[in-house]
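Below is a complete specimen:
___
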Amino acid sequence: MPHPHRSVPNRTSADGEASDSGRSTPPGDEDRPVTGRPVGGAPGFDRVGWVVGGALALVLGGLGCLRHQNVWTGGFDLGVFDQGIWLMSQGLAPEVTVNGRNLFADHLSVVTLAFVPLYRLSATPYWLFAAQGLALGANVPAFRALARQEGAPVWLATLFAVFGAPLLAAAVFEFHPATLAVPAVSWALLEARRGNLARLTVAAVLIMLCRSELAVVLLGIAVVARPEVRRRLLVMAPIGLAAGYVGPALLGARGTFEVHYGNLGTSPKDALLHPWRVPLALLHPTSLVKWVWWLAPVGFMP
């Protein structure tokens, strides 16, 4: 007769992470050690992750406020978003004088609308620094959960989430809505690996609300996603990319393509019809210098 499943009692690891409580042990597994890190399972409340994340949010948010208080911030990109959001809070079109464009005409970041009621209460960019700090802090438990899912050392994931050079660079680069997408990216990766379609969809939408062109990140996540959710990512990514191009075009702006990729052609169609321009542009001396400036500070991690 097979042994009935035996319930495993609650156990908590040394770093405060809850183990898989009440999980039944399959027949013949009575002597298998309990690690407290179930593969594919949902862990309990990550107290350590949220404490570390909260401390990081306070430090980075406070650092942004301190930089602004000491007049170490400038017009790009803080002034652009600060003025655009303030204009919307006054019921005006976000025609930003800093760069001479509509706030949504360069990059489509719908998330900026969430700051409009806050600016009605108090028109200050400190809201932006606080949100950026909270986003990077919230990435800590999300990144720890991803490491746990993949069987990687949680303590190492914590170090990367707190001291990672790209994230710290984003934290001190004044403000940009794309930074707010960081925890959603970790969450999307986690759910893509778990195969949870509903949660993955929510995370993907949040990423694109921060900046529509970040839909390209979904293509990267699709590479490592479980097959049952990969199709959803491949469907959503083109929608975000199209919105990032169509939105500015409808506003009568030059648009993202002309501003950032005009050296490849007058339009995406022109660039596709002349593909040899891409390697020529990448190997241009100006581009090579940009490669060094962009990648050297983070050890070519991307």
Remarks:
- Residues 273-302 form one domain.
